[in-house]
Amino acid sequence: MIVFGHQGAPGYAPENTLLSFNEAIRRGTDWIELDVHLVGNELLVIHDYRLDRTTDGQGIIYKQSIDYIRSLDAGQGEKVPFLHEVFDTVDRRVGINIELKSADTAEPVMELVDHYIQNHGWSINDFMISSFNHFELKTVRKINPDIKIGILLYGVPLDFEQIKHIIKPYSINISIDFISRSIVDIIHEKELNVFIFTVNFEDEIQWMLDLGVDGVFTDYPDRVKAILSK
Question: What pLDDT tens digit does each residue of the chain (230 aa) get?
Fold first, then answer.
């Protein structure tokens, strides 16, 4: 079972910060997962559309300057990182799952991914792109036929065949609130991986193992690794 550090390791460090990503790697994650918005011409790693919850700033991110956002404290003195800073910090130690949060992020993200593949020794297999915005995922697939794509869903998918045909995903990523053995079996019958978010507690981790899911997103990578090692 693959372990994804959900926004790094926010059980131990501020989410979506360089500190959090390093902490996730230190605690044994296989991949990190992060959230990306396009603000102006910059790719910023932050989950919300507003700054209030995760920084000491306020307001909608698209209405703020990059200088203002970068001046904020994202927790423990950390800044809201640029996506390229995360790539440099991770430095191929683990894979990176990039969730596209805002519209029009697919092309600039793929340009950056390609730059790191061409110039910094990364492989296409080091990256996965996911989103609830399936139009963005279609754009990703048009740009690159080989990169892993994870389709994010809150509820139960209705038309696997259409999704599989158009986007050609690597995985279906579903909330733990909607998962069942029958859904896992259906997705596996379509020869797709099943990744579940967000799995933090021992009983949940064991349940995912019992269901045979292929990976979990967690705020506590070490907890999952400890149970997997038993």
Answer: 999 999 999 999 999 999 999 999 999 999 999 999 999 999 999 999 999 999 999 999 999 999 999 999 999 999 999 999 999 999 999 999 999 999 999 999 999 999 999 999 999 999 999 999 999 999 999 999 999 999 998 877 666 676 777 899 999 999 999 999 999 999 999 999 999 999 999 999 999 999 999 999 999 999 999 999 98
* 195-200 contact pairs (CB < 8 A, 24+): 195/2, 195/4, 195/150, 195/171, 197/6, 197/173, 198/6, 199/224, 200/11
Distances (CA, A) of 84 to 88, 108, 116: 6, 11, 9
Q: What is d(CA 80, CA 57) in angstroms, rounded to the nearest whole number?
A: 11
CA atoms within 13 Å, Cβ hemisphere of 16: 23
pTM: 0.97
Q: Which helix (H) or strand (E) holds 122?
A: none
* Phi, psi values for residue 106, rounded to 5°: -60, -50
Rounded Cα distance between 35 and 118, Å, is 23
